[in-house]
Amino acid sequence: MLNTKLKKFGAIAGLSLSLIVAGCGQDDAENDTTEADNSNDNQTEETANVGEEIDYTITGIEPGAGITQATENAIEEYDSFKGWNQETASTAAMLTALGEAIDNEEPVIVAGWSPHYMFAKYDLKYLEDPKEVYGGVEIIKTITRKGLKEDMPEAYEVLDRFHWEPADMEQVMLDAQEMDFEEAAQKWVNNNEDKVAEWTEGVDSVDGTSIELVQTPWDTERSSGYVAKNVLETLGYDAEVTTVSPSVAFKAIAQGDGDASLAPWMPATHGDFYDKYEGEFDDLGENLKGAKIGLVVPEYMDIDSIEDLKAKE
């Protein structure tokens, strides 16, 4: 199995009653206009300084993630990103940097996605992406290795039925801030018996059949991966979850080293990997609608679009 192989591999009020009063009103209006112009100048200056304040750096996540490649593409596509770079490390490091910046009301730009608990925890917004480098709203799909339907029809049926809403996933992610993901997933399963019953109704139990689910290292995929694991275990499966980079996840399913994955974000985030191995796995369709990726900033930042940024001189 894959786990073993990885060890290798304002208007002016009132009317004027005299010219004097009117004159005063005009002065007030001119003052208001001047103040507004100064405010706009200050905002423009603040916007222009964002890059300098954050050293023209976007805080990314893992090097192998689809959003990481999309961000590299954005840096190449937008003139406003000339001279910028992306600092990659891990999802945890990105969340730490985001939290520290917000605590100090400092500027920060991170590569982010939703569903994610950070949108419930903080007041955030996506920067507009006029060139649609990050794509639009996405779906998350379920894929399986060829032959799984014949080898494990019960598991295949459950995975084919598996579908939930962003709010479901975010609940698991939020609970996982206080407990481990498997425990948070089991809590969701216990609290959503009707939904789980839709996935398992009429499906026969098995006796200890091993099945390996391959997930990527995002909290969204940890949520779906462990929920699926716990549901399959109620049917008697010996389910295992293995976390790998997106490229490895697709390769593992295509080569039969893993049995299934609920991780592919389509069409943009993991589209390159999907295209590379298309035809070498079974596509069971979406398991969640409304996913999105892009560049995320705190609401207090006076920028709304990637094009509001300024290239490094």
From TrEMBL:
GO terms for cellular component: ATP-binding cassette (ABC) transporter complex. Residues 49-190, 210-312 form the ABC-type glycine betaine transport system substrate-binding domain. Keywords: Cell membrane, Membrane, Transport. PROSITE patterns: PROKAR_LIPOPROTEIN (PS51257). It holds the Pfam family OpuAC. The keyword RNA-binding does not apply. The keyword DNA-binding does not apply. InterPro entries: ABC_Gly_betaine_transp_sub-bd. GO terms for biological process: choline transport; glycine betaine transport. This is Glycine/betaine ABC transporter. SUPFAM superfamilies: Periplasmic binding protein-like II. GO terms for molecular function: amine transmembrane transporter activity; carnitine transmembrane transporter activity. It comes from Halobacillus salinus. PANTHER family: GLYCINE BETAINE/PROLINE BETAINE TRANSPORT SYSTEM PERMEASE PROTEIN PROW (PTHR47737), GLYCINE BETAINE_PROLINE BETAINE TRANSPORT SYSTEM PERMEASE PROTEIN PROW (PTHR47737:SF1). It is found in: Cell membrane.
